[in-house]
Amino acid sequence: MQEKVLILGAGESGVGAARLAKAKGFDVFVSDFGTIPQAQKDVLKAENIPFEEGTHERAPREVKVVVKSPGIPDKAPIVQELRANRAKIYSEIEFAFQYSKAKVIAITGTNGKTTTTKLIHHLLEKSGFNVGLAGNIGISYAKEVLENDYDWYVLEISSFQLDDIETFKPNIALLLNITPDHLDRYAYDIDKYAQSKFRIIENMDKEGTFIYGEDDPQVELQLKKHQIVPWAIGFNHTFFKEDHLAIPFKGNTYTFTDLPLKGPHNVWNMSAAILAALSAGCSSDSIQKALPSFIGEPHRLQEVAVVNKVTFVNDSKATNVEAAFFALQSFDKPIIWIAGGTDKGNDYSMLQDTVQHRVKSLICLGTDNSKLIEAFKEHKPIAETTDVNKAVELAMEMADEDDVILLSPACASFDLFKNYMDRGEQFMNAVHQL
């Protein structure tokens, strides 16, 4: 008799996990409380995997293994019920890991995960590695394990995915930073959020490598609370020397020029990625050859256009305060800042000095801007709108030559947009209409 597996959530990771589970001989059922996209339904139907949507009524309760979408919180009634029945609840990352022999580089942190993940993959691939890319980046790890035979995987890992691991053990783990984000899922307690991030190393042994951000106060605090078993190496802002990076590694210092990314936060991202590539066995020469051809992440400090000598920058992926802070720090010219959206327990105090000295005016793009307005009302002219086209028009009216109009919301996008990509695309469309 086949063992049952329940897949909760039919997004990219859920459908990937369902396909892998079926291939491994499980009796699979997929249950999604929301609406399943037609493309995902088509895949499930083609694989003869039964599913339901809009309810969990048919979801089997007496199962030993559940693979849960990272978007479903632990407080969801179905999850509480399954835990009460002593089901093992895994993330897709944990489930897929159990069926892969490939080595893993895993990247977590509040900011910079996607850029760093893609850069590491680029460096390894250009160095001749047989390497896959998956995880929170929008590519199902389970699907990749099912369909490909890579020697290495580079995985972007969220705290939600780490919450449901048991045996997941990367060969190289990166923890970039820890700043307040998703606190609504962690009882508004940053320590609980930080503990979740540190789970990335909980199964690692002395053969592994742990790369972490030395400049980050929360990382520094948590290092004192954890026994660090793998070999640990930190990176910090001093690695940047005017126009190049000087990366110390195992007794040598390697110099890298022709850097592909701008902004102070990308100094950390590039440093972390290079350390990961060196740890995996890439030569410094192959890394240097690969660096200039890397293209940065869309919606992350992406220059959209220059209109009447005013530069428009799309940083829609900045969905928390620290990401917006680094964006604001990236420009020496006066900034008209477009911010706002769904607040996730934000504390804007760290932005006060930067906003005071760098921002000319603030345009709030959201349904509830009260917290943003309260934070900056003493300093700046502030406008409000729920229309991205109007926000762009207002910004252009406020701008002088050589100003920067920066969309860097510091908030999630779900009040007005499907996601941060939709927000960024609509912003760019509005700019191009000018």
UniProtKB/TrEMBL annotation:
Any one of the GO BP annotations: cell wall organization
Pathway in which this enzyme or protein is active: Cell wall biogenesis; peptidoglycan biosynthesis
Domain Mur ligase C-terminal intervals: 299-411
InterPro entries assigned to the protein according to its UniProt record, in alphabetical order: Folylpolyglutamate_synth_CS (IPR018109), Mur-like_cat_sf (IPR036565), Mur_ligase_C (IPR004101), Mur_ligase_C_dom_sf (IPR036615), Mur_ligase_cen (IPR013221), MurD (IPR005762)
UniProt key word Transmembrane: no
Functional summary from the UniProt entry: Cell wall formation. Catalyzes the addition of glutamate to the nucleotide precursor UDP-N-acetylmuramoyl-L-alanine (UMA).
Protein name as catalogued: UDP-N-acetylmuramoylalanine--D-glutamate ligase
Organism encoding this protein: Flammeovirga agarivorans
Name of the gene encoding the protein in the UniProt record: murD
